[in-house]
Amino acid sequence: MTDKAGTTAGGTTGPARAANAARTAVVWEALQELLSHLGDGPLEVVDAGGGTGGAAVPLAELGHRVTVVEPNPDSLAALERRAAESGVAVRGVQGETRDLASLFEEGSADLVLVHNVLEYVDEPAAALHDVVGITRPGGAVSVLATNAVAGALHRVLTGHVAEAHHLLADADGRWGESDPMPRRFTRGQLQQLLTDSGLHPTSVRGVRVFADVLPGQAWESDAHTGQHLVELERTVAQHPELVGIATQLHVIASRD
Ligand SMILES: C[S@@+](CC[C@H](N)C(=O)[O-])C[C@H]1O[C@@H](n2cnc3c(N)ncnc32)[C@H](O)[C@@H]1O
Question: To test the ligand 1 pocket, which listed residue (117, 146, 183, 207) has its Cβ within 8 A of the most ligand atoms?
């Protein structure tokens, strides 16, 4: 997430800004709906691999107690600055998903975010096991992950047909040795991974269904393209067919 208003730091282009706004709007609205079901708050929220606090700071602004567990010290420093600028307290702890059990009481978190992290950990199943361990019964886990199907679609759209074929056959959903993304997931793989870890997926949203396939000239012909795109993304995020081509998959799962 960038922030809840969908704004980004300067320097991004119209398409990049709209893609970020689309992502932020869909994920943020899902989180707000989830928070209202989890209780009055303030809730205990852990953002595993929370980076620079794009999700953590807006959640703290809502009054929740948020801890970011993040291995990168530069990201933690940026988180601290972002939280200070927003006038909220967010606890930043240097660590990885494997450290969660030693950092938190078992079953102590109302909500754990795992946003764009399962792509990078050594073992996604082990990471989710650690996440489930600190989530309270009745609590929830929010997982955002890169969609392998969209990865293949985007390779074809940029003319890399053989790489798309490779990606679809590859166990980690990578298009080749030079692919900078360590891992992608299909919707089925992600849901299975969550189910195997003892979670119950309650919703699956597609994030950036259209944002990354919009041709560049669309931005020149209509000044309202960005706004229309964000509205379209909101509308299709839970479309039963279109979820499958979204760049990212957002799954909310509950713990019994
Ligand atoms: C793509 S960034 C996502 C950051 C943030 N969650 C977001 O959605 O904007 C991936 C993050 O995962 C963190 N990370 C990588 N390996 C990790 C691990 N084993 N445990 C926890 N975080 C990890 C990285 O340092 C980085 O901040």
Answer: 117
Q: Is the pLDDT of residue 155 over 80?
A: yes
Kindly list the distances between the CA atom of residue 209 and the CA atoms of 15, 107, 164, 214, in Å, as whole numbers in the listed order. Answer: 13, 34, 18, 10
* Cβ of 97 below 6 Å from ligand 1: yes
| Strand ranges, E, within the chain | 44-48, 65-70, 91-94, 109-115, 135-146, 199-207, 248-255
Cα of 143 from ligand 1 centre, angstroms = 12
Give the residue whose CA is nearest to atom 27 of ligand 1: 51
Fold of the domain spanning 14-147+185-255: Rossmann fold (3.40.50)
Note the pTM of the prediction, 2 decimals.
0.93
State the pLDDT at residue 179. 98
| pLDDT at 20 (0 to 100) | 80
DSSP codes of every residue in 4-49: TT----TT--HHHHHHHHHHHHHHHHHHHHHHHHH-SS--EEEEET
Q: Would you call 8 exposed, middle or buried from its count of C-beta atoms within 10 A (0-12, 13-18, 19+)?
A: middle
Ligand 1 centroid to residue 115 C-alpha, Å: 7
Q: Is 159 helix (H, G, I), strand (E, B) or coil?
A: coil
Q: Is the CB of 50 under 6 A from ligand 1?
A: yes
Cα(48) to centroid(ligand 1), Å:
7
Choose which residue among 120, 130, 143, 251 to substitute to test ligand 1 binding: the one with the highest number of ligand atoms within 8 A of its C-beta.
Answer: 120
Say what the pLDDT of residue 163 is.
Answer: 98
94 lines ligand 1 (CB under 6 A): no
Are 225 and 219 a contacting pair, CB within 8 Å?
yes
